[in-house]
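Exercise 4. Each item below gives a protein and its sequence. For each, produce the structure-token representation.

Item: Putative phospholipase (Knufia fluminis).
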Amino acid sequence: MARIQLPDSTDSLRTSYKFNIPPILQPRLTWKYCLASAALLYVSYCFIAGTPLFSSNLPRYTGPHDVGAIDIEVPVREPRQIHGAVFKDNAEPAFELQTVLFTLYYPAAKGAKTGKHHLWVPKPLWLTAVGYAKFAHISNSLTNNLFTGAMGVLVGRTSIPAEVDVPLVSTEDLLQDVLADVSPSAKKTPRPIQTVTSNGLPIIIFTHGMASSRTQYSHYLAELASRGYVCAAIEHRDGSGPGTEIIDSSESPATRTNKLHFGLEDVKSSPHSPDPNSKLDTEEFKHAQLAFREAEILETTHIVHSLNVAGRGEKILAANSRSQGSGAGLPSLWVNRLNINATILAGHSYGATGALQGLKPGKDMPSIFAGGIALDPGKSSGRLNTDVDVPLLIIHSTSWSSKHSVFYGQPHFNVVRKIAQNLNKKGIAGWFMTSLGTSHPSVTDAPLIEPTLLKWTTGAGIDAHEGLRQYVHVSNDFGRYVTSGKMQNLLALPANSPEYNKENKGMDKEWREYWQVHVSPVGSS
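Answer:
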């Protein structure tokens, strides 16, 4: 009988029996292995924690109220073509107004939760991605897929913290003065957050800039909502956004249409033109876009104001193709809760140009708007309306004030300054100031989501959170002025520098790090 020779020791036993570990799992302390391991750990962490890859989650809001959000899309009162231009590829109207879409941010009932949040990039994600590829003039099947994949990785899971479809805050829970955890200026002694609650909740109608959408200013608007404002962020369908889905509930079943970014090169002046390449000139195209935006602003304002009237909210809720609003208490909780006489029209960049245009006397809008906020009025979005007859707050980012730009034969800075100066000459309050250390995107969500990348590419010197916080504080002070006539904090200071300058001499010490005031009604003659 054959004998089996056993190992002489446990050591030899250990060496005789080895597990075969796949080569890919065998540790190697090379830089490639360490990098791959770190990447795998990071992706796993993001997946488990529910955070987006290579970006930050949007922060919670700092005001005294919780914030709710609902999407509303309803057919307009009179569907119509705003301009006769058509798309070259299919001869369909380019500026046909069918519905309006906006997100409504509002102070919500304390502690109300649904667990639902709007995505920062709305579905379908590819629509936004392909739109940005079109903006970059590199749209084809390969780049479209690359843009879609990259956007999905970077921000596909990013959501807006506001709770979707929760009830409006009750009258009893509205807070007047709640101690903040951050000073609006030097972040030292806490100061009261001032909320506006008398005579109903004030309203802000917001219009976005070029290459933007309704979701990209969510933090600025939701912060104001946490302070007692009802803010409507419009999704413009004038070609200035990357992409939008139009859901028209006026037909049964509702129709869905995808509309991508389009520019001057994509349209021709008329479907009846014998020349297939007949073009609009640049000024006419911008005029058409601004006219379309103006119509959307009017429709949105009408809808928001209708929420305040008994019997009208039901119709809006029934027509809303986004199927939201019932949880928010539409229509019952909203009746007689809004201060429609304190409606402010606000916008950024192209949106600021549109807001100024909308405040021009002689139109319907000045009768429904009590004030305006213009953030970085456009430098290439057409002429700025200089004739305004309501209080106006104009804020430039540092990148907007510091860069000299010729605007229709004049320095852009001078044109903007004159708008505020003319208001004060008429006895109407006008402010023009620069937010120091900020760049053009500072009021958007982008620096909060990608702070390092945006700081590197735009040159912003201020912390992204602090920069946006400054915009919120001053906008809130302006809202209080519109509702009460009281100037406070930065708005109570005289101008310290008619021109932009880095030294910021003469500015009150408390605000010197953050603001430079060029025009103010305080001390104006």
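Check: DSSP finds 13 helices and 17 strands in the chain.
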